[in-house]
Amino acid sequence: MPLIAVLPGDGIGPEVTREARRVLEALDLGLTFEEAPVGGAAYLATGRPLPETTLALAKRADAVLFGAIGDPRFEGLERALRPEAALLGIRRELGLFANLRPATLFAGLEDASPLKPEVVHGLDIVIVRELTGDVYFGEKGRRSTMEGLRQGFDVMSYDEREVERIARVGFEMAKRRRKKLCSVDKANVLETSQLWRDVVNEMATDYPEVELTHMYVDNAAMQLVRAPAKFDVIVTGNLFGDILSDQASMCAGSIGMLPSASLSDWSGANGMYEPIHGSAPDIAGQGKANPCAAILSAAMLLRHSLDDEASAQRIEKAVAAALAKGARTADLGGSLPTTAMGDAVLLELQ
């Protein structure tokens, strides 16, 4: 039986992960679940944000269902002990280099988007974000300048192999969708981006059916507001992808609606699935969190790691049906608590 590692994490993570697990269990697919602490919760329990037992579970599981991490109580700790270090550690140890972040406007949520309905109509994009390179993993530190001033530095770098493997995920995704791939970089000022663009262009010959375009990241941010539905698949680096995917979430109505998958290869082996929203400690424990992103992440888990497209679509259709009937959490302008929103999805699933 497939083993799912459940890592609820901090803040609203346990609340939304609980609803996602309820949905998976309702499908009666013979899945087994094992839970472990991560992030701030793990630090409180063990003194480490990513205990060895948690990492070992993630490595032997067929997939990881992740909640959220982050707790302001630990901001004064050294970086390696902060909750966020756990997320970077899992990505590194599992080799999760490809982050898939779909942004879809569900019917009935047009008014939830800050964009005009006619602008956001038809939004259905996937942002493919490189996850283990860039400034997040490059050399970093503090030093003094010649004038004695404090200076911080973070090195942005990619080698051609790193670009090639994430670009291939982008091309493969576009090939299976509307065959349009937009590579986002900043090649006019960054040497790292120029290499990125060169490698992506070289790979385009392997995908003649895919229309490849390039766009500078500042223009991409503008076009996501001006005409988001014109995009199909966007492939970009770690830093740019982090920013653009959050922007895309608001185009879709709420960051509480966006799932994600982090993969080590196209097959989805040992993938990790999580909502892209943070731990939201200001509303933790109040039943205000939107569980839809976590539930939709569970659908991605079934699709990519367990190769169960039919069950993935059942979940997505159940979420769409619940929303169409007016089920709304506070972030969508409604008043349903977290568990009630999960109940609404379960009702449609049945």
Task: Describe, in plain words, how this protein is organized in 3D.
With 350 residues, this protein is an alpha/beta fold. The chain has twelve helices and twelve strands. It has helices at 13-26, 40-46, 52-60, 84-94, 117-120, 160-176, 191-203, 217-226, 238-251, 292-304, 309-324, 338-349, and strands at 3-9, 32-35, 63-68, 98-104, 124-130, 140-144, 150-154, 180-185, 211-216, 233-236, 261-263, 271-273. The strands form two sheets. A ten-stranded mixed sheet has the order 2-1-3-12-11-4-5-10-8-9, sandwiched between helices. Strands 6-7 form a two-stranded antiparallel sheet. β1, α1 (13-26) and β2 (32-35) form a beta-alpha-beta unit. α10 packs antiparallel against α11 (309-324). The longest helix has 17 residues, at 160-176. The mean pLDDT is 94.
List keywords for this structure.
about 350 residues; alpha/beta; ten-stranded mixed beta sheet; two-stranded antiparallel ribbon; 12 helices; 12 strands; about 40% helix
Query: Which range best describes the helical content: under 10%, 10-25%, 25-40%, 40-55%, 55-70% or over 70%?
Result: 40-55%
Poorly predicted runs of 5 or more residues? none
Question: Quick check: average pLDDT?
Answer: 94
Can you tell me the overall shape? globular
Q: What is the element layout, followed by pairings?
A:
Elements: E1 3-9, H1 13-26, E2 32-35, H2 40-46, H3 52-60, E3 63-68, H4 84-94, E4 98-104, H5 117-120, E5 124-130, E6 140-144, E7 150-154, H6 160-176, E8 180-185, H7 191-203, E9 211-216, H8 217-226, E10 233-236, H9 238-251, E11 261-263, E12 271-273, H10 292-304, H11 309-324, H12 338-349
Parallel strand pairs: 1-2, 1-3, 3-12, 5-10, 8-9, 8-10
Antiparallel strand pairs: 4-5, 4-11, 6-7, 11-12
